[in-house]
Write a structure and sequence with these properties.
It contains 9 helices and 7 strands; from the N terminus they run H-H-H-H-E-H-E-E-H-E-E-H-H-E-E-H. The chain is an alpha+beta fold. The strands form 2 sheets. The chain has a 5-stranded mixed sheet, covered by helices on one side. A two-stranded antiparallel ribbon has the order 1-3. Helix 1 runs antiparallel to helix 2. Its EC number is 2.7.13.3.
Length: 371
């Protein structure tokens, strides 16, 4: 019952109950005064009857009003008290308290809205705590990864100043190591900058119609030159022909280069196979990169897209980069209205699936081919 209905009912009862009480008092007193004792109706009896009737009627009216007001107030103040207590607990930071409301009145509706707000605040608090934890992890990762090459550079520079390398060949080795560490530092700063811009939505995309099959073919040809001395088998399968997508060519290339480099880096034996396949379905282009490498554990698979996460806890540069590669890849793919997922089994291999929307040009060509 709504508050308005309660007020209406109370108003009606404030009329009906006193009238009913009047007739009950009238009949009861008449019976007691005149019927039971068999007394005559005279001025004395009538005066006493009238006075007592008025007093009892007045008391009945007061009692009825008090009871109705108390009942109405109680039905309103009790849920409000619960809301007030819940608000105080929330003010103290306790978002686990629940506000139950089973009625259909305005206060019950307010209580349900209040509890919905509490749940949203709790979710937001949990997300913020998770974000703060990830931020602490990120800061620790940044500090560690920046400190490592800087410390190495400082050590080699100190060695050069102190004249540790006694031969030109050794000095050249020191200088090459310093240059390599500086390049590593420059790459890391570049990835940090890109990650920051992507995270804040400030990394503008230079969109154009890109032939995905040609882009992948070019990347794979370059990688084949880099791994030609190894026994890695790299294959490319395109059964759909020309595949055009709207994309930022440079950023999308970065994604595929990172995924392929990871596949090369995490091989587990000499007969390492990497397969890249293109297909299309439902106005989407699908790129699948699969290998028979080390694979990823179930726990690590849930965290691979987290910034600075590496399955190798030692943060060894020989087996892992900055830990930003897949996080950047995910942000770039999502900025293209696509999605990326990874399936993997330890010691069995990994499969990366990327879905990207096709260009309108591609869709028009597909329609023409189907006619």
């Amino acid at each position: 019952m709504t508050i308005k209905q309660r007020l209406t009912l109370s108003s009606i009862l404030l009329v009906i109950l006193p009238v009913t009480a009047f007739f009950v008092i009238e009949i009861s007193l008449g019976y007691l005064f005149f019927i039971v004792p068999g007394a005559d109706v005279n001025e004395e009896n009538t005066g006493a009857f009238t006075t007592l009737r008025f007093v009892l009627f007045l008391l009945a009216v007061i009692l009825i009003n008090i009871l109705l007001i108390l009942m109405l107030a109680r039905s309103i103040t009790r849920p409000l008290d619960r809301l007030s207590a819940a608000a105080k607990e929330m003010g103290k930071g306790n978002l686990d308290i629940t506000v139950t409301a089973g009625g259909k009145d305005e206060i019950s509706a307010l209580a349900r809205e209040f509890d919905g707000m509490r749940r949203k605040l709790k979710i937001e608090k949990e997300l913020n705590e998770r974000y703060e934890e990830e931020k602490r992890h990120m800061i620790a990762g940044i500090g560690h990864d920046l400190r490592t090459p800087v410390t190495s550079i400082k050590g080699y520079v100190d060695g050069l100043i102190d004249g540790v390398p006694g031969t030109p060949e050794k000095r050249e080795k020191y200088l090459k190591t310093i240059a390599a560490k500086a390049d590593e530092l420059d790459t890391m700063i570049d990835e940090l900058s890109l990650f920051s811009r992507l995270d804040e939505g400030r990394a503008g995309l230079l969109m154009e119609n890109v032939e995905l099959d040609q882009l992948l073919s070019h990347i794979i040809d370059e990688l084949k030159l880099e791994i030609e001395t190894s026994s890695i088998e790299l294959s490319f399968e395109n059964n759909v022909g020309q595949t055009i997508i709207p994309a930022d060519r440079m950023k999308l290339s970065r994604v595929f280069v990172n995924i392929l480099n990871n596949s090369v880096k995490y091989r587990r034996h000499e007969k390492h196979r990497i397969s890249v396949q293109i297909s299309t379905a439902d106005s989407l282009a699908q790129v699948m990169v699969s290998d028979n490498g080390r694979g990823i554990g179930n726990d690590a698979l849930l965290k691979v897209f987290q910034p600075f996460y590496r399955e190798d806890s030692s943060r060894n540069k020989n087996t892992g980069g900055s830990g930003l590669g897949l996080s950047i890849a995910k942000s770039i793919i999502e900025s293209h209205d696509g999605y990326i997922e990874i399936e993997s089994e330890p010691e069995r291999g990994t499969r990366v699936i990327i879905m990207l929307p096709l260009s309108e040009v591609q869709n028009d060509q597909d329609i023409d081919c189907g006619r």
